[in-house]
Amino acid sequence: MNSYDVLIIGGGPIGLACGLEAQQAGLNYLIIEKGTLVNSLYHYPSNMTFFSTSEKLEIGGVPFVSLNAKPTRNEALEYYRRVAESRQLNIHLFEQILTVKKAEAGYQVHSSKTTYFTKNIIICTGFYDIPVLLGVPGEDLPKVTHYYKEPHFYFRQKVVVVGANNSAVDAALETYRKGAEVTMVIKGPEVGERVKYWARPDIVNRIKEGSIKAYFEAELSKIEPYSVDIQTKSGIVQIENDYVIAATGYQPNFAFLENMGIQLSVDEKRYPIYDPVTQESNQPGIYLAGVVCGGMDTHVWFIENSRVHAEQIIGHLRQLKS
């Protein structure tokens, strides 16, 4: 059986940061990622620009050099590949964790490939895998996607974009500029306040001039193969439609956490229970790092403000070992 001091679940930037800290501390560690390296970033829109500056995305003291102040998705992928390669991080890719069971002095972890024994576990699984569903008839139609990749596909198509924050705004602007007829359906009275400062005026002006149609204080009520129904303050509006991009957000895999015995708050936020000093959950030896700590508040933790979790966790493990 493969034995480790610490098993890190999730090969995103924070999982890599935890691996770097464990490596520096002389701990026997392994990072396991169910997809490719920094899998969530890989599935971001192709033309995405980060809100954070490059230095705030750095991990392990490895410089992140970008052509502009705000790095792009492709630059981030290159950076994290370089970190993993230059530091020779111990990573298993395309391997999924299936079950975690308590064992003597640690945990027995079953993956899609083998079984491990580990004294400690760090969960860095993020929140990008499970979309928040609209819950309306027709959401399962092939024309509906919760993951927007790039705009060319939508040339000369009638596209409805649901949402008011960064993902929705990026999708609306990019598809519009590649020849789509774009309609936004926004639950609130305005475009989200957290939209990137260079994109918000752009979308507001495009809506104001009518280049992009927007229904505010509205929700999709039904999706048909060639149309959608929009519930507005004035009643139902039906419009012709080819594709729906539902940028309604994502959520952590709560079932995965609960199956390990990690407690969640009973309110709608579903915050996992952990010590904010050590990042240790209610299960001894199981730690939480990165955006998974925020539950449904997925805008609380980012790469730039959760990098410190790696230092906190490995610092605590070093104390326990000494």
Structure commentary:
By secondary structure, this protein is an alpha/beta fold. It contains eight helices and 17 strands. The longest helix is centred in the N-terminal third of the chain and has 14 residues, at 73-86. The protein is elongated, with a radius of gyration of 21 Å. The two termini are 25 Å apart.
Based on the model shown, name its key terms.
elongated, 7-stranded mixed sheet, 5-stranded parallel sheet, 17 strands, FAD/NAD(P)-binding domain, 322 residues, 8 helices, alpha/beta
Classify the beta-strand content into a percent band.
Answer: 25-35%
**Secondary-structure arrangement, i.e. CATH architecture of the largest domain:** 3-Layer(bba) Sandwich
Q: Major beta sheet, specifics? A: 7 strands, mixed
Q: Rough shape?
A: elongated
Q: What's this entry about, in short?
A:
This protein has 322 residues and is of the alpha/beta class.
List the helices and strands and how they pair.
Elements: E1 2-9, H1 13-24, E2 29-32, H2 39-42, H3 73-86, E3 91-92, E4 97-103, E5 106-111, E6 115-123, E7 130-131, E8 144-145, E9 158-162, H4 166-177, E10 181-186, H5 200-209, E11 213-216, E12 219-224, E13 227-232, E14 235-240, E15 243-246, E16 250-251, H6 254-259, E17 286-288, H7 303-306, H8 308-321
